[in-house]
Amino acid sequence: MPAAPRPQAAVKSSVPEPVAVKGAPKAPPPPAPAAPPPKQEKVRQVLQQSEQYYATKTTIFNALIDTIDLSQLAQLDSDSAREEIRDIVVEIISIKNVVMSLSEQEQLLDDICNDVLGYGPLEPLLARDDIADIMVNGADTTYIEVNGKIERTNIRFRDNAQLMNICQRIVSQVGRRVDDSSPICDARLLDGSRVNVIAPPLAIDGPTLTIRKFKKDKLRLQDLVNFGSISEPGAELLRIIGHSRCNILISGGTGSGKTTLLNCLTGFIEPGERVITCEDSAELQLQQPHVVRLETRPPNIEGSGEITMRDLVKNCLRMRPERIIVGEVRGPEAFDLLQAMNTGHDGSMGTLHANSPREALSRIESMITMGGFSLPAKTIREMIVGSIDVVVQASRLRDGSRRIMNITEVLGLEGDTIVLQDVLKYEIEGEDENGRVVGKHRGTGIGRPRFWDRASYYNLERELALALDELGG
Q1: C-alpha dihedral, 279 to 121 to 400 to 330, nearest 10°
Q2: Of 209, 93, 215, nearest to 157 (Cα)?
Q3: In what order do the strands lie in the sheet with 248-252?
């Protein structure tokens, strides 16, 4: 039997190790990893139109303006004016021998009618109910917000003059103006959507138009439950707070859904109550029959005639209101609202910008101080404690969803500190595989909140106890 081969011993390599030589040039360092390419901004294709289409549209539009008598057009109603424009545009297309498909020609007719009579390129965006915000940054750049996320679109205007013309058309419908002498303007569309315009020379890249759209269907509290903004027991808690005529302050950041939540809470106002609303631009959509809507007025071209929010709130008190609702508290009117809440106008409501319930009360104190009221800090805090019953905190999370984060009641003063107590909190637990924030509304174990007696007065203590039990601790 042949012997097994013996294992060979490890043999050292005969290649000598490199020896560093003093003064020799160093080897070049390894190349750095290439930087990742910058992310390209996605553009949502709202309209599938070519550059040639836009050039043709500009040519025909200019020919239309040279042909049409705008003074006679202004005397016609909307439908007749639209038919007149369509007939002239069809004639111009045939004269200029423009080659277009039937669908392109129909699109061109609609676009030009919108340019002359409506809101131009904004019309397809305003017609969609899933868009929350429209942001126009000059003639060539338009963004929209859909499902809490901001996206760029391919919507554009002919030039800054067309954009400025549409801005003036929007604000003139509510008796306001925007031009070089008055370049900032707040207004609203006919459906209540909020509009802000800032024009050159303040806006450097051309007129900037921001529209906060409202859904055509008025949202109710049950819709917020379906969206996940609040849980079922939390919604029942808000219903009881609204029915019990607690004074409510809704706090939150920009775009967190404060006005939507205020609209939902006003759904619990009894039909027979007289409600007076005060707003900078009327956007509340109350469902009650007995509502008086008031709106502030900016100064005229001579700088006189301004009606401030404070003037409106003070005048409200002489109009026999049962509830006063202030669209947004942002100045010295906070003092008058607290006075109203503290003098028999139970169930009044307002919104303001703040990141937490405590910060909201601190901001109210700051507004009153900035209004020139020489009151001690403790007196202002006693007023706040005696006026506001509940603070509801709304927030917009990182995934674009909106949640009610806290329902907090104001208990009283301990020394110079306002004591707050959370009845409900939203606790974030993480996120799912799609990047959506996951969390849950939980009670804080409060068995008998401060507004229990008020709920008992309206025979709602049984429902309140059940809602608190369902929330758990």
Answers
A1: -20
A2: 209
A3: 291-295, 275-279, 323-326, 349-353, 248-252, 390-396, 402-414, 417-431, 437-443
User: Which is nearest to 325 in space by CA: 349, 303, 302?
Assistant: 349
Place of tokens 């315009």: 197
pTM score: 0.76
DSSP annotation of 324 reads E
pLDDT digits (tens, 9 = 90+) for 11-41: 445 555 555 555 555 656 666 666 666 666 6
Q: What does 218-282 look like in DSSP terms, one character per residue? A: PP-HHHHHHHTSS-HHHHHHHHHHHHTT--EEEEE-TTSSHHHHHHHHGGGS-TTS-EEEEESS-
Which residues make beta-bridge pairs with 409?
A: 390, 421
C-alpha R_g of the chain: 31
- Show the tokens assigned to 232: 């079922």
Side chain identity, residue 343: T
- CB atoms < 10 A from the CB of 423, how many? 22
Tell me which amino acid residue 232 is.
E
Residue 348 in tokens: 């009044």
What pairs with residue 135 in β-bridges? Answer: 143, 210
